Amino acid sequence: MQNKGHSQKGFSLIEILVAMALVSIILLIAVGSDFSNRKSLDQVLDNYERIIRFSTDEASLKNSFVRMNINFEQENGQNLTLEYSDDKDFIIDADFEKSLSEVSESEKEFVEEKQKKQDSSFSIVEEFDAEEFEVPPNVRVLGVGSELTESFRTTGKTQIYFYPNGQKDASIIIFATEDEIATLEIEPFRRVINRTYAEMPEEIPSDYEEFLIDRANEIYKEWLQ
Question: Are 180 and 200 in contact (CB under 8 A)?
Answer without folding.
Answer: yes
